[in-house]
Amino acid sequence: MRSILIGGLAASALALAIGQANADEHGIKVGTVAGPETDVMQVAADVAEREYGLDVEIVEFTDYVTPNAALADGSLDANAYQHEPYMQSMIDDRGYDFAIAGRTFVYPIGAYSEKVDSIDALPDGATIALPNDPTNEGRSLILMHELGLITLDDPENLEATPLNIVENPHDFDFREIEAAQLPRVLPDVDMAFINNTFAQPAGLSLDDALIKEGPDSPYVNLIAVRAGDEDREAIQQLVDAYQSDEVAAKAEELFDGAAVPGWTEDEAE
């Protein structure tokens, strides 16, 4: 079962829209970002129902902020869409009390262009679009720093913004854009960093990215829960179902190799 919510709803409207999370251990609500990651979660839900009799209701969102608000207010039992640096930034900013129940996939971020076919062809003064959410913006800038395109004051600062650029020898013009809108603005900029969550549905292949993360990326996505719920039977059943061969195969199909399992064999047992 799936529900779809648009980002930016007030907490009261959100709670009214999807109700309180089901306390019955045979049913849980999990939030995802609409797109192929939801399709992957559907496979996990099917596995959980078959193996454990668990009823998983998937609630789809269209932004990165609202799923955490829904988890915090009890409207969800879990969400699966964010990596640990992003979750920690939300904890720091909003005081959420979250915990990691399990790990899902690394979805590498890439820089795409419709105007040049190599990073060496990027002109001075090029307009570069960045995701405006915490950590993913820094994630993009760190990749540029590592290539020597810019210099950051602290290349280990995962929340770096253009204000942290101390050297910009090519005079790049940076635009901060909501992540979901980046594929739409791609024709209007010289290059855009786009999360695979939004790149793949837009027909963009990581193989075509001018810059991309390697398989050793630390940005593995998580199944997040409220602190204290990580050992709940239903949550662990969901995690076990997610870390299954069926889910890995679906992610391979949908993301064409651009989804790397972030769990170990021991975790999946």
UniProtKB/TrEMBL annotation:
Pfam family, one: Lipoprotein_9
Membrane topology: Lipid-anchor
Classification via SUPFAM superfamilies: Periplasmic binding protein-like II
Gene3D superfamilies: Periplasmic binding protein-like II
Signal peptide (residue range): 1-23
Localization: Membrane
Keywords: Lipoprotein, Membrane, Palmitate, Signal
Stored PANTHER family: D-METHIONINE-BINDING LIPOPROTEIN METQ (PTHR30429), D-METHIONINE-BINDING LIPOPROTEIN METQ-RELATED (PTHR30429:SF1)
Protein family (similarity comment): Belongs to the nlpA lipoprotein family.
Annotated protein name in UniProt: Lipoprotein
